[in-house]
Fold this protein.
Amino acid sequence: MSNAFGSVRLLVVDDFPEDRELIADLARTIGIETVLEADGSEGALEEIRKAAVDSVMVDHRLDGENGLDLVDEVHKHWPTLPIIVLSGQGNEKVAAAALRGGALRYMPKRGMDAGALKSAVDNAMRCVRHFKAHPSS
């Protein structure tokens, strides 16, 4: 059986190293071999510029900054790059703001497991395939 996520390059942006590592471990569990990490907006934008990133997972709260501002920035410069917003303390308002800002999906960190991550990444990769097949969409 082939690994559907083997070539996916996932960027995880979170200011808590433990959360980044947990998400990276879950990503590897579902077959994602390349997980890049950043602890804030500056590092995230640098990784996106230098690497062929397929999807970004960003915490809505970053140390001293708002992760939703990063969502806006990424969406402005890379409008077809799927963004998944994570939150350990979010609510419906955060979810709505993330989606309005260009995020594809909002996921609470609490209770995140391999199945939820697989579903989110699968959805993101469907979007990538759509945009590649229909560049003017």
Notes: DSSP finds five helices and seven strands in the chain.
